[in-house]
């Protein structure tokens, strides 16, 4: 069977260039703020000082996937919906879209001396990662992009300092006016959307951690509930992670039956030692150290894995809406239950 690993002739930066242009051209409608460095680098603020919004978050999520994914918001119309608003994702190039572009794997940091003020740290995601190819993951994928324009998404609550911008330009070998940086704090609306839209990417990353041959993965679809943003950064991070760990559903198509069976059993987040508590509580209990958390936790709650070899689909895991409800839902006054809330 032909390989599903990323073909070298595909450019995630070329494919997503129109999305970056659309983000800038529609900034006012999307409630984002566009600024430029003296050398012409575009900085799109989607939640630091600007309001941003769900539509901006969807467009940023598509940009993060290198133009190789569909992302949409769906309103649940079932009698007993999992949650009113759901993020849905699909890609026919899951390895390249999710690991070669969307994965937040590029660590960008600067000391207070380098910034002339506060320390800076952010993880970079999106297509420009494949221009710099600073992560060993790109060696495993056998992929590096070549394009004269690039876009990078920074999940951080302030705009990047010149030191970081210069580093990105050098590592990506881009002219300053050919780079677009999108800033999306997790506690913003757009930031919440683009993180929850990583539901398939989380499944691909867990598949990689399990040591499964990435060439097995053919298609990927997923959904997760879209929580309301939280003003506190830790709670916001907790909500977006919980949406995937306890409410995320993913359907992967793989080549072999053995891999399908294994992933159905081992992929769900319920395999993790730390499963069962809100992510913010887990993170706090480990003194805010990600590396102390069981890596098996970073996975969707429920999976279906279809095998092209056998035609069978295997199911594993389950959602835990009770945990999400307890974290996200407010309580109406008793007099308002069944009717409009009273002032």
UniProtKB/TrEMBL annotation:
Cellular compartments annotated: Cytoplasm
Pathway where this protein functions: One-carbon metabolism; formaldehyde degradation; formate from formaldehyde (H(4)MPT route): step 3/5
Nucleotide-binding as UniProt keyword: no
CDD domains: MCH
GO molecular function: methenyltetrahydromethanopterin cyclohydrolase activity
Alphabetical keyword list: Cytoplasm, Hydrolase, One-carbon metabolism
SUPFAM superfamilies, alphabetized: Methenyltetrahydromethanopterin cyclohydrolase
Reaction(s) the record says it catalyses: 5,10-methenyl-5,6,7,8-tetrahydromethanopterin + H2O = N(5)-formyl-5,6,7,8-tetrahydromethanopterin + H(+)
Main localisation: cytoplasm
Entry keyword Lipid biosynthesis: no
An annotated GO cellular component: cytoplasm
Enzyme class: hydrolase
EC number: 3.5.4.27
Gene3D superfamilies: Methenyltetrahydromethanopterin Cyclohydrolase, Chain A, domain 1, Methenyltetrahydromethanopterin Cyclohydrolase, Chain A, domain 2
Reported function: Catalyzes the hydrolysis of methenyl-H(4)MPT(+) to 5-formyl-H(4)MPT.
Protein family (similarity comment): Belongs to the MCH family.
Protein's recorded name: Methenyltetrahydromethanopterin cyclohydrolase
Organism of derivation: Caballeronia mineralivorans PML1(12)
């Amino acid at each position: 069977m032909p390989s599903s690993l990323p073909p070298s002739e595909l450019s995630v930066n070329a494919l997503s260039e129109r999305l970056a242009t659309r983000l800038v051209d529609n900034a006012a409608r999307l409630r984002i703020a566009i600024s430029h460095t003296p050398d012409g680098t575009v900085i799109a603020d989607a939640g630091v000082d600007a309001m941003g919004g769900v539509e901006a978050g969807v467009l940023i999520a598509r940009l993060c996937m290198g133009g190789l994914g569909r992302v949409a918001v769906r309103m649940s119309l079932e009698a007993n919906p999992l949650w009113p608003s759901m993020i849905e994702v699909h890609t026919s190039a899951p390895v390249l879209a999710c690991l070669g572009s969307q994965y937040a794997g590029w660590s960008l940091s600067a000391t207070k001396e380098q910034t002339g003020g506060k320390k800076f740290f952010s993880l970079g995601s999106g297509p420009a990662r494949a221009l710099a190819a600073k992560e060993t993951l790109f060696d495993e994928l056998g992929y590096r992009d070549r394009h004269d324009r690039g876009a990078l998404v920074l999940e951080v609550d302030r705009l990047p300092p010149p030191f970081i911008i210069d580093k990105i330009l050098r590592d990506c070998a881009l002219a300053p006016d050919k780079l677009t940086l999108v800033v999306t704090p997790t506690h913003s609306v757009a930031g919440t959307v683009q993180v929850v839209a990583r539901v398939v990417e989380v499944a691909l990353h867990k598949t990689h951690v399990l040591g499964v041959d990435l060439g097995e993965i053919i298609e990927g679809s997923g959904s997760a509930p879209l929580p309301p943003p939280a003003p506190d950064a830790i709670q916001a991070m907790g909500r977006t992670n919980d949406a995937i760990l306890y409410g995320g559903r993913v359907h992967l198509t793989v080549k072999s039956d053995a891999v399908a069976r294994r992933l159905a059993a081992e992929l769900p987040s319920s395999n993790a030692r730390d499963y069962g508590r809100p992510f913010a509580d887990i993170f706090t209990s480990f003194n805010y150290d990600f590396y102390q958390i069981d890596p098996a936790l970073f996975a969707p709650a429920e999976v279906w894995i279809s095998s092209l070899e056998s035609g069978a689909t295997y199911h594993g895991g389950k959602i835990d809406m009770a945990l999400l409800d307890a974290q996200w839902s407010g309580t109406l006054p008793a007099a308002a239950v069944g009717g409009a809330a009273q002032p």
